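Record passed on here:
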Amino acid sequence: MSLTTDIVRFWEVSDQVEGETCQGVQADGSCESIEIPDCEDRNVYCNELPALTVAELTYSNIPDPAALTLVDTSVNIKCTEENWHFDYAVQTDFVSFHYSNNINELNLTCTEYGY
């Protein structure tokens, strides 16, 4: 948006939001006063990741280091202890974990829909 003043001290506005920016519109299209709302954070964020005690989080893509839940942030989560895996539920009649998929590493990327 660009604001300039005319000879009679009214504002001339280019690239305005029609009906929002210009208050007291004059016959020549200039404005008696200008209304500009505060800036607002329009970023999309994912939920915070849960606190993990025996896992390591490594961020590989960080658009903003101050906001680790911002869209496009990527994180690798890995169980750090040998033979430790994420405790995903298995069916109740499961006899052994031997044949299950033992997942000990995840790669997540925050998208506009979440992780």
About this structure: Residues 1 and 15 are 5 Å apart (CA to CA). The chain has a mean pLDDT of 80. The beta strands are 2-5, 11-14, 22-25, 31-34, 55-61, 74-79, 105-109.
